[in-house]
TrEMBL record:
The lineage of its organism: Bacteria, Pseudomonadati, Bacteroidota, Flavobacteriia, Flavobacteriales. This is ATP-grasp domain-containing protein. Signal peptide: none annotated. Pfam families: ATP-grasp_3 (PF02655). Keywords: ATP-binding, Nucleotide-binding. Gene3D superfamilies: 3.40.50.20, ATP-grasp fold, B domain (3.30.470.20). The keyword Nucleus does not apply. Residues 121-306 form the ATP-grasp domain. One of its GO terms (molecular function) is metal ion binding. InterPro entries: ATP-grasp, ATP-grasp_PylC-type.
Amino acid sequence: MKSNTKISILIPDGESHVLYYVVNCFAKSGGVKLYVMSDKKNNYMRYSRHIQKFLYHTENNKESRWIKVIDENVEKYNIDLVFPIFETAIRSLIKNRDKLKNRDKLYALPSLQNFDAACDKEFLYKHLLNTNLSYPLGSVAKPGEIPNLNNLKYPIIAKPVNGSGGGVGIKVLKNYNEVLQYCERNPFECNIIFQEYINGYDVCSNVLCENGEILACTMQKGIAYENGEETYQVAFDFIDNKDLYENTLSLMKSLNWMGVANIDWRYDIDSNEFRVIEINPRYWYNTDASAIVGVNFPYLSCINFLKQDIPTQDINLITFYNLKGFIKKFKKNPLIIFKIRFLQKQTPLFYAFSDPMPMIHKFLWRTKNIVFGSN
């Protein structure tokens, strides 16, 4: 920030798993005081030294009351910026922004229609039908319904249209019998989208936008995954690809996007084009990796909110390993632990070293649950 005065930020959905990555980004930028609301009393992030005040509440199931608690905390702690980080809170604040007493302190968010088009894979598929962007052909079925797949080629990938990511419910199906088995065993209450599986590889683009224009962007290509390509990337290359950038810009313009988003693409090696897979309309797993290479999305969101110029970003195109990716690499080459520059520039370990208490409490909590069982 240009001023020496710290900006006070209220994160109203601190129960989200992406809080850790967002806090790391603000710790790297400095210039902020973080206040975090959460409906999880034992949230391990309450022990972070980077959080000014952890505010436990019990109102997440009552939207109107939750809005009131936000208003109360904004006034009590003289908050400058209300900063939701995950889908549920973002959508609630889009719906209820006119009910906030200090709605001018909420950073710019997309319209509800465009947010839902991005968040719901079925709505996104219908939106893409009216664009020039490439995407896998598909068909949508209701729970328990057998989809019409006459125009699709196997293999097919099945996905719930709603979900918080991580590959939950995603499965590649090789024939019609596997489709039938998937439908019979499907535990989800939402619709399922079935799309042709693209022969190629995964890439992501991460953006901060205003009225559909990209203010900041990073791109990454996965090289290792938590448990197969349908799950989280645990190691990836930061890349610079003009075609991917132009496709991302076209997609964001079509949604007149406001704020951040993480877009999953599949590069089709048969047709040599990027195909839109899905949009995560919020902060994402490994947001702090972009901060390490030079693009600090939470900080830049604050800069934009304050109507300050977004500085030019010089991106360091490195291979990044998150904690799980680092463990995989360490098992193959234990001597990597002595490469300090690698640990500092290509892993999040220095985030953990500078703020160890959340990870310690998380480890103790998990150990307790394993030994004694969770209540």
